[in-house]
From TrEMBL:
Gene3D superfamilies: Alanine racemase, Lyase, Ornithine Decarboxylase, Chain A, domain 1. Keywords: Isomerase, Pyridoxal phosphate. This is Alanine racemase. GO terms for biological process: D-alanine biosynthetic process; peptidoglycan biosynthetic process. Signal peptide: none annotated. GO terms for cellular component: cytosol. Its cofactor is pyridoxal 5'-phosphate. It comes from Nocardioides albus.
Length: 234
């Protein structure tokens, strides 16, 4: 509403040059319930709506609430809400549990490309920051930081396989990572789960964010990109 005054928009709509179908704004601190900025923004939004009404504008849609406000501020829902993080089943609130039963909806899976045996004491990946503690088996997974996998410290994030948790061995590379699978029966072509609801031993989005020092937003938007095609399940 700030670029063109409401009165001007009213004239343009009456002249048939435009149709104002919605008025919206965005909350800055909704992830902190009770933050005074949200109330101040509500007042500013109501002022804008009143100015639009005086200009003769009757938009069908008035929307202000993001995920956090949709869950905690019924007074900010207006005609519709814009859920982002909550759509993925991730808690949008900064320091408290979500007031709804959210279940993570996104999974990141990959197929094992190669499995090889390794003796005790072998350094794995760049810098040899991880060394095998016993004779074991290593699995190569063709997914790396170019696909959005965080470069986390070795052993900090498990990868799920058939209910078991497998350890990421060494540094995540650009195009691949290595799993120390031990005696687990993993073969080339098997599917492993890097990210999901936690049902198969894998980390959730929030757990990935915690161990990598990133936010859930970065994990969700950074994973996949061009090289990992999304599959939508209904």
């Amino acid at each position: 509403m700030s670029l063109v005054p409401p009165l001007s928009k009213g004239r343009l709509e009456r002249d048939g040059l435009i149709e104002v179908v919605g008025i919206w704004s965005h909350l800055a601190c909704a992830d902190e319930p009770g933050h005074p900025v949200s109330d101040a923004q509500r007042e500013a939004f109501e002022t804008a709506l009143a100015a639009a009404a005086l200009a003769g504008l009757r938009p069908r849609w008035r929307h202000l609430a993001n995920s956090a406000a949709a869950l905690t501020r019924p007074d900010l829902r207006y005609d519709l809400v814009r859920c982002g993080l909550a759509t993925y089943g991730v808690n949008p609130l900064a320091h408290q549990a979500a007031p709804a039963d959210l279940r993570p909806a996104m999974r990141v899976v990959a197929t094992v490309a190669h499995v090889k045996s390794a003796p005790e004491g072998v350094g794995v990946s760049y810098g040899h920051t991880y060394r095998t503690k016993r004779p074991t088996r290593l699995a190569i997974v063709p997914l790396g930081y170019a696909d959005g996998v965080p470069m986390i410290p070795p052993g900090c994030a498990p990868v799920g396989f058939d209910g078991a948790s497998l350890t990421i061995a060494g540094r995540v590379c650009m195009d691949q990572l290595v799993l120390d699978v031990g005696d687990t029966d993993v073969s080339p072509g098997d599917e492993v789960v890097l990210l999901g609801p936690g049902d198969h031993g894998e980390h959730t989005v929030e757990e990935w964010a915690a161990v990598s020092g990133r936010s859930p937003y970065e994990i969700l938007t950074g994973t996949g990109r061009r090289r990992v095609p999304p599959v939508w399940l209904h």
